[in-house]
Amino acid sequence: MKVKIQVKILTVAIIALTALAVFHPASRAGQTEPSRSVWDGVYTEEQAKRGEAICIRECASCHGAALTGGEESPALAGPAFLANWEGLSVGDLFERIRISMPPNKQGRLSRQQIVDILSHMLNVNSFPTGKTELDTKTEMLRQIRIESSKPKSNSGSD
Ligand code: HEC
Asked: Residue 123: which residues within 8 A CB-CB, separation 6 or more?
């Protein structure tokens, strides 16, 4: 008798969970945008130009004018840099710069200046430009994955 009731409860629970999984908004394709990557045109050419000007002033003395690195400073472009950041997000890179760069002068750059710099970095790393600027909000930046090579198929939500 007891066992039967337990089986019934279990069955009801399974049905309820299945229904939740099917109807839960997050599991419906298209409701929550799948995260994007740096290959999706996430910054504009104009923005990258602004970023370049800031980089020349604030970063080039250590990281080099072409971002290829200096004696003690790593490159911010090229395969070694991309390997470091592979699978992480533009938001992670944003935070890294916000918290630690330029050294001893952290906090000197505005969020807008940092995303402009990031646009320039994406540009130097040959990621495509797009129609909308890189957003200054960390939640938005966290949805953009850093991938060194172009994904084979980018068929969208299905
Ligand atoms: C005074 C020299 C100096 C300046 C100026 C400077 N950096 Fe750096 N940067 C470094 C050094 C040294 C490192 C490596 C050690 C560390 O992480 O602190 C580094 C590391 C980094 C990293 C991590 C790279 C990786 O692959 O892990 C990023 C990103 C970065 N810098 C971005 C910037 C940006 C953007 C600017 C300009 C706003 C800037 N830096 C200005 C010296 C500098």
From this structure: 43, 45, 48, 51, 52, 129
Structural tokens at position 136:
């200054």
Size of the chain, expressed as the number of residues it contains: 158
What is the position in ligand 1's atom list of the atom closest to the CA of 61?
A: 5
CB 130, CB 41: distance < 8 Å: yes
Contact residues for 59 (Cβ-Cβ < 8 A; gap 6+): 67, 76, 101, 102, 117
Q: Is 84 in the pocket of ligand 1 (CB under 6 A)?
A: yes
pLDDT in tens, 121-130: 999 999 999 9
Closest protein CA for atom 15 of ligand 1: 73
